[in-house]
Amino acid sequence: MKFQGSDQYVATADLMLAVNAAATLQRPLLIKGEPGTGKTMLAEEVAAALGMPLLQWHIKSTTKAQQGLYEYDAVSRLRDSQLAGIEGSERVRQIENYIVKGVLWQAFEADQPVVLLIDEIDKADIEFPNDLLREIDRMEFYVYETRQLVKARHRPLVFITSNNEKELPDAFLRRCFFHYIKFPDAETMAKIVNVHFPTLKKDLLAAALKNFYDVRNLPGLKKKPSTSELIDWLKLLVAEDVPVQALQAQDEKVSIPPLVGALLKNEQDLTLFEKLVFMQRNNR
Ligand SMILES: Nc1ncnc2c1ncn2[C@@H]1O[C@H](COP(=O)(O)OP(=O)(O)O)[C@@H](O)[C@H]1O
Ligand SMILES: [Mg+2]
Fold first, then answer.
1. Exposure string (b/e) for 241-264, b if CB count within 10 Å is 16 or more?
2. Within a domain: 2
3. Residue with the nearest Cα to atom 7 of ligand 1?
4. For a designed S-S bond to 262, which of 8, 31, 119, 233 qualifies (C-beta 3.0 to 4.6 A apart)?
5. Which ligand is the nearest neighbour of the Cα of 226?
6. 230 lies in which domain range?
7. What are the tens digits of pLDDT across the range 1-51?
8. Is there a single domain that holds both residue 134 and residue 200?
C-alpha cells in the first residue's frame, strides 16, 4: 500500500514520503500549508489511489469533538414521546434510536479501512484537538447513554489539515506525523497546471507563470494568490482566448495581467501592484 501521486494530483517526493510514513507509523498525518496548496485534495486523492472510502469531517469554529463521535438527539426523542401512540412509545424508550453517529464512529465501524479527513482543524477552538487525543490514540470511545464501547474494526488512515490560523497543542502534535506543503516552485507548478490544462500552449503557460510569480513575490501583499487562484485565472485566460502577447510586457518589467481579479482579492493589493507597475514605467 504505497501512495505515488495520481493523474489528477501532483505529489512531490517528500509529500509521498510523508503519506507513506504516516501510514507505516499508523499515526495521523498533519498537513499544513497556505490555503490552496492541495491539502484537502491530498486526502481525496490518497483515498482514490488506494481504493479506500473517504470520510470527511469539515471543521467550523463551532464544531465540538463530541460531534465527531456521536450526538444524542434529545429534541427528536421528546417530540416523538409527545406524538407517539402505543406502538411508537417502544421506539422512544430505546435511547439508541436517538444516538446519531458522527464521522469518527462511521470510520470506526466501517468494514474496511477508510481514509478519514479532519479538515481545517485550526478552525475549531483550542480544546478541540486535545478532546480527540484519546479517541485517535486508542481508536475507541465510550457511549455513555447506551453504555457501549465503540472500537475501530480497522484503523483508519487519518489526515488532518491546518491553515495555521492557530497553534496546535503539543500533546496533539506528538501523536501526528507532520508535513508542511511548501508553496510549489515554478517547475512543480507547471506540472500541476498541466494536470488541469493538458493542452495549454507552452508559451502561454510560461508567460502566465511569470505573471503569477511576479504578483506573488510582490513584497507587502496582504493575500498572496495560491495554486487554486492560478488555476481559476488560467481557466479564464483560456475561456477568453487571451493571446500570449497580452501577458508579455515589452521589456522584462512587470505589467498588470488581464483578469487580475482572479489573482488579487483586495483593493490594497491591487493598488500596491499598480503602484509598482507605475514606478517601473517611469524609471525607464
Ligand atoms: N498538487 C496539486 N495537484 C493538482 N492540483 C492541485 C494541487 N495543489 C492544488 N491544486 C489545485 O488547487 C485546488 C485547491 O486545493 P485544496 O486541496 O482545496 O487546497 P487546500 O485544502 O490546501 O486549501 C485544487 O482543487 C486543485 O485544483
Ligand atoms: Mg482545504
1. ebeeeebebeeeebbebbbbebbb
2. no
3. 38
4. 233
5. 1
6. 186-282
7. 688 888 899 999 999 999 999 999 999 999 999 999 999 999 999 999 999
8. no
